[in-house]
Amino acid sequence: MPFDDLSDAVIVENYLRTQDQSYFEEMYSRYANKIFYKCYSILKDSILAEDAVQDIFMKVLLNLANYSGRSSFSTWIYSITYNYCIDQVRRFKKVNAVISDQQEINEIGYEDEDYLIKEDNLEALRNTLDVIDEADKMILLMKYQDNLRLKEIAEVLSISESAVKMRLQRAKEKFRKIYTSVLQI
Length: 185
Known about the structure:
- Helices cover 71% and strands 0% of the residues.
- It has 185 residues and is an all-alpha fold.
Protein backbone atom coordinates (compact mmCIF):
# COMPACT_ATOMS: atom_id res chain seq x y z
CA MET A 1 0.00 0.00 0.00
CA PRO A 2 1.72 3.27 -1.09
CA PHE A 3 1.77 5.92 1.64
CA ASP A 4 4.14 8.45 0.09
CA ASP A 5 1.34 10.73 -1.05
CA LEU A 6 -0.54 10.63 2.26
CA SER A 7 -0.08 13.29 4.90
CA ASP A 8 0.42 12.38 8.54
CA ALA A 9 -3.10 13.59 9.31
CA VAL A 10 -4.61 11.28 6.70
CA ILE A 11 -2.58 8.33 7.95
CA VAL A 12 -3.71 8.98 11.53
CA GLU A 13 -7.32 9.36 10.42
CA ASN A 14 -7.17 6.14 8.38
CA TYR A 15 -5.60 4.24 11.25
CA LEU A 16 -8.24 5.42 13.71
CA ARG A 17 -11.01 4.57 11.26
CA THR A 18 -9.75 1.14 10.14
CA GLN A 19 -7.29 0.03 12.87
CA ASP A 20 -5.16 -1.26 9.96
CA GLN A 21 -1.66 -1.84 11.39
CA SER A 22 -0.01 -0.80 8.12
CA TYR A 23 -0.98 2.81 8.90
CA PHE A 24 0.62 2.66 12.32
CA GLU A 25 3.69 1.01 10.80
CA GLU A 26 3.91 3.95 8.41
CA MET A 27 3.81 6.40 11.33
CA TYR A 28 6.53 4.36 12.98
CA SER A 29 8.71 4.34 9.86
CA ARG A 30 8.31 8.11 9.43
CA TYR A 31 9.15 9.04 13.01
CA ALA A 32 11.13 6.27 14.75
CA ASN A 33 14.57 7.55 13.69
CA LYS A 34 13.72 11.17 14.50
CA ILE A 35 12.46 10.16 17.91
CA PHE A 36 15.50 7.98 18.52
CA TYR A 37 17.92 10.80 17.76
CA LYS A 38 15.95 13.28 19.85
CA CYS A 39 15.88 10.81 22.76
CA TYR A 40 19.56 10.06 22.33
CA SER A 41 20.43 13.77 22.35
CA ILE A 42 18.61 14.17 25.65
CA LEU A 43 19.32 10.85 27.38
CA LYS A 44 22.87 10.38 26.02
CA ASP A 45 22.50 6.60 25.98
CA SER A 46 21.58 4.56 22.92
CA ILE A 47 19.95 1.75 24.88
CA LEU A 48 17.80 4.19 26.85
CA ALA A 49 16.95 5.95 23.58
CA GLU A 50 15.91 2.68 21.92
CA ASP A 51 13.71 1.84 24.90
CA ALA A 52 12.30 5.35 24.84
CA VAL A 53 11.26 4.99 21.19
CA GLN A 54 9.25 1.90 22.06
CA ASP A 55 7.67 3.55 25.10
CA ILE A 56 6.86 6.70 23.16
CA PHE A 57 5.19 4.77 20.37
CA MET A 58 3.18 2.89 22.96
CA LYS A 59 2.04 6.27 24.32
CA VAL A 60 1.26 7.41 20.77
CA LEU A 61 -0.78 4.29 20.14
CA LEU A 62 -2.70 4.63 23.39
CA ASN A 63 -3.34 8.36 22.92
CA LEU A 64 -3.81 8.58 19.16
CA ALA A 65 -7.56 8.97 19.53
CA ASN A 66 -6.85 12.10 21.60
CA TYR A 67 -4.84 13.70 18.79
CA SER A 68 -7.02 16.66 17.86
CA GLY A 69 -5.18 17.92 14.79
CA ARG A 70 -4.87 21.44 16.26
CA SER A 71 -1.11 21.17 15.81
CA SER A 72 0.80 19.15 13.28
CA PHE A 73 1.30 15.47 14.03
CA SER A 74 5.06 16.03 14.16
CA THR A 75 4.62 18.70 16.85
CA TRP A 76 2.29 16.43 18.81
CA ILE A 77 4.70 13.49 18.69
CA TYR A 78 7.63 15.81 19.51
CA SER A 79 5.72 16.96 22.59
CA ILE A 80 5.24 13.36 23.73
CA THR A 81 8.93 12.66 23.06
CA TYR A 82 10.14 15.75 24.89
CA ASN A 83 7.93 15.15 27.93
CA TYR A 84 8.89 11.48 28.10
CA CYS A 85 12.61 12.24 27.93
CA ILE A 86 12.41 15.02 30.51
CA ASP A 87 10.59 12.64 32.84
CA GLN A 88 13.40 10.12 32.30
CA VAL A 89 16.08 12.73 32.97
CA ARG A 90 14.35 13.71 36.18
CA ARG A 91 13.86 10.09 37.15
CA PHE A 92 17.51 9.22 36.62
CA LYS A 93 18.67 12.59 37.97
CA LYS A 94 21.01 13.12 35.07
CA VAL A 95 22.07 16.74 35.15
CA ASN A 96 24.28 16.48 32.07
CA ALA A 97 21.73 14.78 29.81
CA VAL A 98 21.33 17.19 26.90
CA ILE A 99 24.50 17.60 24.84
CA SER A 100 25.82 14.36 23.36
CA ASP A 101 28.71 15.57 21.24
CA GLN A 102 30.39 18.51 19.56
CA GLN A 103 28.31 18.09 16.40
CA GLU A 104 25.14 18.97 18.28
CA ILE A 105 26.81 22.01 19.76
CA ASN A 106 27.73 23.15 16.25
CA GLU A 107 24.14 22.67 15.11
CA ILE A 108 22.78 25.12 17.68
CA GLY A 109 21.98 28.31 15.78
CA TYR A 110 22.18 31.67 17.48
CA GLU A 111 20.78 35.06 16.61
CA ASP A 112 23.12 37.98 15.88
CA GLU A 113 22.79 39.19 19.46
CA ASP A 114 24.49 36.00 20.59
CA TYR A 115 27.87 37.18 19.29
CA LEU A 116 29.75 35.75 22.28
CA ILE A 117 29.36 32.21 21.08
CA LYS A 118 31.98 31.18 18.56
CA GLU A 119 33.42 27.87 17.48
CA ASP A 120 36.73 28.58 19.20
CA ASN A 121 34.88 28.64 22.52
CA LEU A 122 33.19 25.23 22.25
CA GLU A 123 34.59 24.05 25.58
CA ALA A 124 33.13 27.10 27.33
CA LEU A 125 29.85 26.53 25.51
CA ARG A 126 29.77 22.88 26.59
CA ASN A 127 30.61 23.82 30.19
CA THR A 128 27.86 26.44 30.21
CA LEU A 129 25.27 23.98 28.93
CA ASP A 130 26.39 21.50 31.59
CA VAL A 131 25.63 23.90 34.45
CA ILE A 132 22.64 25.86 33.17
CA ASP A 133 19.25 24.97 34.62
CA GLU A 134 17.58 22.00 32.89
CA ALA A 135 14.45 23.95 31.90
CA ASP A 136 16.53 26.78 30.43
CA LYS A 137 18.70 24.30 28.57
CA MET A 138 15.71 22.57 27.02
CA ILE A 139 13.95 25.73 25.84
CA LEU A 140 17.18 27.01 24.27
CA LEU A 141 17.73 23.69 22.49
CA MET A 142 14.14 23.56 21.26
CA LYS A 143 14.53 27.04 19.78
CA TYR A 144 18.07 26.93 18.43
CA GLN A 145 18.88 23.26 17.86
CA ASP A 146 15.48 21.90 16.90
CA ASN A 147 14.42 25.15 15.17
CA LEU A 148 10.95 25.03 16.65
CA ARG A 149 8.78 28.10 16.21
CA LEU A 150 7.50 29.90 19.30
CA LYS A 151 4.04 28.48 18.66
CA GLU A 152 5.41 24.92 18.57
CA ILE A 153 7.41 25.42 21.76
CA ALA A 154 4.28 26.83 23.41
CA GLU A 155 2.36 23.70 22.39
CA VAL A 156 5.08 21.37 23.64
CA LEU A 157 5.32 23.14 27.00
CA SER A 158 1.58 23.88 27.25
CA ILE A 159 2.19 27.58 27.86
CA SER A 160 1.40 30.76 25.92
CA GLU A 161 3.68 32.16 23.22
CA SER A 162 4.34 35.24 25.37
CA ALA A 163 5.47 32.92 28.19
CA VAL A 164 7.80 31.19 25.74
CA LYS A 165 9.29 34.56 24.72
CA MET A 166 9.78 35.50 28.36
CA ARG A 167 11.38 32.13 29.22
CA LEU A 168 13.64 32.28 26.17
CA GLN A 169 14.79 35.78 27.07
CA ARG A 170 15.51 34.78 30.67
CA ALA A 171 17.28 31.60 29.58
CA LYS A 172 19.46 33.56 27.15
CA GLU A 173 20.35 36.08 29.86
CA LYS A 174 21.29 33.31 32.31
CA PHE A 175 23.25 31.55 29.57
CA ARG A 176 25.21 34.73 28.78
CA LYS A 177 26.09 35.33 32.45
CA ILE A 178 27.29 31.77 32.98
CA TYR A 179 29.05 31.67 29.62
CA THR A 180 30.91 34.91 30.31
CA SER A 181 32.06 33.64 33.72
CA VAL A 182 33.18 30.33 32.18
CA LEU A 183 35.23 32.22 29.57
CA GLN A 184 37.02 34.11 32.36
CA ILE A 185 38.13 30.94 34.16
